[in-house]
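Lab notebook, bench 4. Still working through the backlog of constructs that have no structural model yet. Next entry is a single chain of 312 residues. Request: give me the structure tokens for it.
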Amino acid sequence: MSRSSAFIISVIRAARNWVYAAGGRLSGLKLSILADAAFCAAALFAGCTDASIARARHEIASGDYRSAHQHLAAEAAKADQLSPSARRAVMDGLCLTEYQIGPPTYSLMRQLRTCATALNEPGSESGQMFAELSRKERDSLTKQVTAALAHRDIAGAEDAILRYRSTPGSNPQLAAVWTRRLWTIVNRDAMPERTSLTATISQISRQFRPQQNMSARQFHRWIEQNMTVDGNLMVSEVEVGKRTLDLWLGDNQLSNAAVNLDRFARVNDGLVARCHCNARTTVALKDSGLPAYLVRLDAASRNSEVLILDQP
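Model written out:
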């Protein structure tokens, strides 16, 4: 008997004794019936979880997965009150029913989350189902990435690549290939119209004369100074090439970078003056290598402009 049922029974006994002692209006027979009913209710309360699980199992056996899921979800809402075996049965049951019901009610991602939660329970039997769902999700995301790249859909490709990378069993080498292809698309699409940039480069070079005479170490330090806001470096890595500058952002640096885009334009202007060329700066997400920003020369404004790449 659970503690909650024992508590209810003790309360009922105390109430009955009080009524008898007070000489209540109810007859002894009515009191006896009332007490018996209360004891039955307490017994039913003690076994309601097991009864719900048994009912859900019966519904699963008969193919009524939706009804079974409803009963299991009600039990999962009070998971912290369940015994370890009952909690495992409930979580495994939710994994199974969502797998059987499937999309569109439960997406592959939702099924994966549910089955991953089930696997956290000792003795879970959801491992094989989780592996199958992971394979399906990887296959689905592979198709999404391929289609997005074919349609030059930068945001769609980024979203699918990130989700693929977080799916168990993903192939890091394949994700890296997709990322390189995505950068190729970004650079190609960001090409300015065929127009002379000579005047723009000359103007910027005059504005940034000191950067032209800096040593490699001094220029690197100048970039870091421009990338520092309120004493915090807003990039994780800085790689300086002859005509390119690669910057990397950690997850905790994204918000700071988003409100200081002018810093990226300034360091690209410095690189333009230094190489006296059409220089570019790429800003990538550190963990995935996916594009965040691209900085290029703009003939119309005669300075560097920051292209904000759609991010999921």
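Notes after review: Residues 127-150 form the longest helix (24 residues). Residues 1-12, 18-46 have pLDDT under 50 and may be disordered. Flag for follow-up if needed.
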